[in-house]
Amino acid sequence: MTRSDLVARLGERFTQLTHRDAEFAVKTILDAMSDALARGHRIEIRGFGSFQVNRRPPRMGRNPRSGEQVVIPEKLVPHFKPGKALREAVDERTPAEPSPVSNDRSDDAPA
């Protein structure tokens, strides 16, 4: 689902909102969440999940072209942890049957 899909869905559900109002509402919510995470705050939406900022410590890496070791600096990255209700809702809608594509090549092997 894209941002425009979200705006369209909001407009369908709340017919009194114009497309511009729905777009403004989505933008306002996403901007508020981005600002809160940028300030280091944690966001919790009950039944959906929580967003927080995780710290990735500095580490040594390699330049793939030269093989030279380089220092990769510390990073702060956003992290989402789904809530129980979201996990259960996704699990209910996920088909239990295995995918028709398989890595097991024993059926194709000549006898």
Automatic annotation (TrEMBL):
GO terms for cellular component: cytosol. Keywords: DNA-binding. The keyword DNA-binding applies. InterPro entries: Hist_DNA-bd, IHF-like_DNA-bd_dom_sf. GO terms for molecular function: DNA binding; structural constituent of chromatin. Residues 54-111 are annotated as: Disordered. Residues 85-95 have a biased composition (Basic and acidic residues). Coiled coil: none annotated. Belongs to the bacterial histone-like protein family. This is Integration host factor subunit beta. It comes from Rivibacter subsaxonicus.
